[in-house]
């Protein structure tokens, strides 16, 4: 009998235990981050349960409202936003919240205030809800630098200033992926325990991948480097095999696959959307943070994504992220001026 293996199976590294272990490395820590993360995890469990019950509970359907980007809001978007806003405020550890669903940033009242700023998309990929495709929550966390009245400038920081970032994917299993700035770890929800268990320790993205992921329906409007790159994926001129195309249309799911299997995810600029589609603060930054922490890269077409300084909370940016070598190729095409028409 393999007692060591049995011990391993019974000695579960829950996300709470993991974060407390990390916290113990910093004796000056007051545990605020662990408390904040517990509230985020609670929000994810709630949304996971709501997503699983969506069909049954007749939650699918329009709530009769539109969000900041003028998109139709589904009931699950509204519900998820409420859940996260309430969970984050009640943690007593936040001072500013920026949600994809809310036009304005939320400034937490002084009596409930803490030092963390949380940017989040409570339910990304919501157009996939009705057909049961994976969707997710994305978040990034900044710290208010000093004890003073928070302002919007505290949110408009480059992504490299993030303290932590992560996502929760509501798919065939519920997976929580987190980086606190020293690598990336993945946890899977054990529904019988109601706990996220460390299942993917120290995730490293392969140096180069065999998959590219992009909405090719936009190809007619792409710029030169993107068009050239995708052409090279399909018809490589160096004797290598063509890459496979996989595109779900749900960023969390596409990025999760990219992180585990390697390859590249692209949401480029195009003639119709010169800034691309994805939002800097709560899509581009957290995913770029995770990619870099896993050994990959994230590029906007002009610069390292995490160096971008947003001017407004719902700003968009083109993004190319994934395996180090694959992103290196698209960077080379932009550097070579393939953008000239
Ligand atoms: P929805 O929330 O409207 O489904 O958009 C999802 C998303 O923001 C992101 O998750 C996807 O990567 C991207 O949009 C897909 O966009 P296209 O449908 O234009 O490919």
From TrEMBL:
Q: Does the keyword Transmembrane helix apply?
A: no
Record-linked Pfam families: FBPase, FBPase_C
Kindly indicate where the leader peptide sits in this chain: none
**Major place of localization?**
cytoplasm
Instruction: Mention any one GO cellular component term assigned to this protein in its UniProt record.
Output: cytosol
Gene3D superfamilies assigned to the protein according to its UniProt record, in alphabetical order: 3.40.190.80, Fructose-1,6-Bisphosphatase, subunit A, domain 1
Key word Metal-binding present in the record? yes
Instruction: Identify which cofactors the protein needs according to its UniProt entry.
Output: Mg(2+)
What Gene Ontology molecular function terms does this protein carry? fructose 1,6-bisphosphate 1-phosphatase activity; metal ion binding
Q: Which residues form the Fructose-1-6-bisphosphatase class I N-terminal domain?
A: 13-201
Q: What keywords are assigned to this protein? A: Carbohydrate metabolism, Cytoplasm, Hydrolase, Magnesium, Metal-binding
Tell me the superkingdom of the source.
Eukaryota
Top-level EC class as recorded in UniProt: hydrolase
Where is the protein found, in the record's own terms? Cytoplasm
Q: What EC number(s) are associated with this protein in UniProt?
A: 3.1.3.11
Per the record, the GO terms for biological process are: fructose 1,6-bisphosphate metabolic process; fructose 6-phosphate metabolic process; fructose metabolic process; gluconeogenesis; photosynthesis; sucrose biosynthetic process
Q: Kindly state which reaction or reactions the protein catalyses.
A: beta-D-fructose 1,6-bisphosphate + H2O = beta-D-fructose 6-phosphate + phosphate
Q: Supply the name of the protein.
A: Fructose-1,6-bisphosphatase, cytosolic
The source organism is: Rhamnella rubrinervis
